[in-house]
Amino acid sequence: MNNRKQFGYSLIELLTVVAIVGILASIIVPSYQNSVRKARRSDSQAVVLELQQFMERFYTQNGRYDQDRAGNPVTASIPVLLQSSPKEGPVVHYNLAVGNLTERTFTITATPAGDQASDKCGNLTLTEAGTKGMSATGLTVAQCW
Fold first, then answer.
1. Helix (H) or strand (E) holding 33
2. Is 127 exposed, middle or buried (0-12, 13-18, 19+ CB in 10 A)?
């Protein structure tokens, strides 16, 4: 009779642990990526609101949204920091643009870029009246804003 104790793990035990780790990773990684996209979307919304405030200040000073009193377009006055999200850093997740410019109207559009392009909400929009929108179908504005 041999009374030696065996140390270590069997191949079946190791394979079971690897399978469990694989299953957990397949659940956790997509959830994490979704959370990152949502955080980037929130950051872009903050920059969009800052750009809206800039446009309102511009209107207060010039009496119109599309150009200043000297006839220069508003797009020439928009600070570089309000043209993308995040405002600083090497990677851009959203490009911001002001469109539909008239004397009394504008629409700010945040277009996802890079890794953020797969965001389910698509383009985010905000008008001079504060109306929020997005280009995704099957979702409500409240789900994206």
1. helix 11-62
2. middle
What is the rounded CA–CA span in Å between residue 32 and residue 54?
33
Convert the pLDDT of each residue in 63-117 to its tens digit: 999 999 999 999 999 999 999 999 998 999 999 999 999 999 999 999 999 999 9
What distance in Å separates the CA atoms of residue 56 and residue 89, rounded to the nearest whole number?
A: 26
- Distances in Å between the Cα of 5 and the Cα atoms of 1, 8, 9, 54 are 12, 10, 12, 75
The pTM score is 0.83
Q: Which long-range contacts (CB under 8 A, 24 or more apart) does 130-134 make?
A: 130/52
Residue 34, both tokens:
């979704």
Q: Which helix (H) or strand (E) holds 46?
A: helix 11-62
Report the distance separating Cα 28 and Cα 112, nearest Å: 24
CA atoms within 13 A on the CB side of 11: 0
- The pair of structure tokens assigned to 109 is 């559009």
Neighbouring CB atoms inside 10 A of 112's CB total: 23
